[in-house]
Amino acid sequence: MSHSPEAPPRFLDYDKSLACIHCGLCLSACPTYLETGNENDSPRGRIYLMRAVQDGRLPVGDTAVRHIDLCLGCRACEVACPSGVQYGELLEATRDHIEHHHTRSLAQTILRRFIIEKIFPFPGRMELALRPALWLRRLGLARFLPKFAREALSLIPEAPKRCELPVVARAGQQSSRPRGRVGFIRGCVMSVMFGETNAASVRLLNQAGYEVVTPAEQGCCGALYAHGGNLDQARACARHNIQVFEALGLEAIIINAAGCGSALKEYGHLLRDDPVWAARAARFSSLVADLTEWLFRSRSEHGAGRPSGGQQAVNTALEHDHLPSAVPKVTYHDACHLAHPQRITRPPRELLRAVAGDQLVDLSESDVCCGSAGSYNLTEPAMAERLQRRKIENILQTGATIVVTTNPGCILQIRAGLLKAGASHIRVLHIADYLVESSVPV
Question: Structure pTM?
Fold first, then answer.
């Protein structure tokens, strides 16, 4: 007598997966489908695979895992979807199931579980790991490494700069009382490779009139864990950060990295089934704002004020159309997790337009992923390189000499791509660095 295979444990919210009506409007928004044309590499195709695994019709084997792994998690499909499919939630739940029920190769296990999870979320460890990598490159030994290793080394900045932020940075306003008190998430990659960008971000907030608190006890936001299928560790990160920030009496919690911001804003969802933490997580997430979102909102609410420095430049330019001469041509790349899950596209452009005016030029496919996608350019280097090349071709067509974006991974990926294309003269800047560097005189 034959027996049907045991049903797999429930991991998928089936009702949410059935919201997908397979209309296909997501296809043109999906970077991997644009590259491969394979239905299995599209959002609706992957949802079909997720349901097949949940139903027990498809094993958690190499075929299903391959197509799920190839997803960038950029969530552009959510913006295109008329049915409001919560694809990001479905993807993370499926990846969590895969990591518990699929055996990966030794190389993939070391990369995912050790390098990505045990080094990247810890700034001290990351600094130590970067030292031999930088020496290999500086001594010219990188050329002897396999291609994937050379590609990984090419992402590292020439001189990563860590910048310790004060626990409390006072507002730089003329009046003695600050407009408010905000927290700042310094990030893992940001704090090690973009320390000066963090300092510029705090400076902009101070100049806008805010006292900035950067608690030393904060930790990783959990995004790398969640995207890699380790939801338990992502929840642990969320609980830790909530506990650190919730007693500080903050008006907002500011983040300058799009991927981290998306994760922080979803703590409420991540801990929704935890009776002890659910309400606290929802409260925390309600306070999180991207740097561009907050600066633009502050300008709109307090435009009549006279803050000094960078914010004053932004306010003055926006209000009086006062633009500096000889502004270089600038283009803007939408970081996936700012444009898609957070739906923030206007604030960064308005802040840039205040400085660049007509020199801000549109980038074709600006919201198509550059191939960074957290740790994707390490786990899926071939597809990441294809998307990197696509992004660089679009950038070169703009004629811009500065590319501005809002996420560290995008900056590293685009810089490396421009270098490979022989276009190292084009600068790639975080928007905080651009605003500080390009302040309009008043």
Answer: 0.90
